[in-house]
Every structure is written in C-alpha cells, then in structure tokens.
Amino acid sequence: MIRVALVFLVGAAIMIAAVAVFHQFVGSGLPLSTSGQDWGVFGDYFGGVAGTLLSFLSILLIVYTIHQPA
User: Virtual CA dihedral for 51, 55, 56, 61, nearest 10 degrees?
Assistant: First the structure.
C-alpha cells in the first residue's frame, strides 16, 4: 500500500508543479475570464486530466489487490 500512496503523491506533486510553472511563466497577472465558454473548456480539460489520473489509480489498486497474499 505504501507504493500506491507513493505513486499517488508523486502524481499529485507533478500536477501541482505543472500548475505552479504555468502560473509563474504564463498565468501571473492575467484576469480571470468571464466567458462561460472559456470555463467550459477548462472544465473539459480538468475532467480529462482528473479522469485519467483516477483511472490510473484504479488500475494500481487492482494490481495491488491481485498481488496481496491470501
């Protein structure tokens, strides 16, 4: 279970680092959009990333369950 937690933490750290780098180099000083279309695109992106990460985590947990001693 420690391996699963480690993989989850590394994935979370990579996501946080990506957001921090984007904010540092691109997003600082830009106003938030008031367009619903822009927020819809952001929601699609976030859902796609979160869905992929949750699927990967589910696969890791299935592999962990299969390899547990009886």
Answer: 140
